[in-house]
Amino acid sequence: xxxxxxxxxxxxxxxxxxxxxxxxxxxxxxxxxxxxxxxxxxxxxxxxxxxxxxxxxxxxxxxxxxxxxxxxxxxxxxxxxxxxxxxxxxxxxxxxxxxxxxxxxxxxxxxxxxxxxxxxxxxxxxxxxxxxxxxxxxxxxxxxxxxxxxxxxxxxxxxxxxxxxxxxxxxxxxxxxxxxxxxxxxxxxxxxxxxxxxxxxxxxxxxxxxxxx
Length: 213
Hints:
By secondary structure, the chain is an alpha+beta fold.
C-alpha cells in the first residue's frame, strides 16, 4: 500500500466517523423534543389567605417556575391546584379529584417544548383516599394511600386537568405515562370541552374523575 493509499484510507475513515457522529447527534435531538424543569413547594412556607368558613381552608400562593406561581386552595377535605395567573380561563382552580385528597407540598414537573421558555403543562402528585382508607378511617384517622399524578395544561386560552395516572398501579412507569399525556395532548386540549384521560392501570378502590361512575 502506497503512502497515498494510506492517506486516502485514513481520510475515508475520518469521514465515516464524522458521518456517524452527525447521525447520532441528530438522532438525540430528534428523540428529545421536550424537557422538564422542577420546583418544590410547601404551603406551610407560602403566603396564606384564610378561608371564610369552617370547611374553607383558605388559599395559598407559592413560588413556581419563571414567575409562574403555584396557586392552591382547599375545602371539604379536597384540594384545588392551578398555576400562573388566575382568570376566567382557569378551570384547574375549580377541578379536584373524586376522593378526599391533598397536595399541600410536593414537586412540580414543568414540561417544556424544545426552544421554548414557557412550560405548556405541569405534572404533580396528589395523595388520594381510596375505599380501603375510608373503611379504616371509621376506627380513627387514616392517611390517604392513593397516589395520582395530575397533568395540567397551561396556556392563556386554558388551564385545566388533561389527565391522570395512578402511581402505584403503574409503578416504575407512572412518570413516563404522565409525560406522554402532557406531550401528546396538553397543547391541543380544549379546556371545558375535552374530557381528561386516564392512562395506564387503575388500582381497585381508586376513583378518578374520568372513570367515576
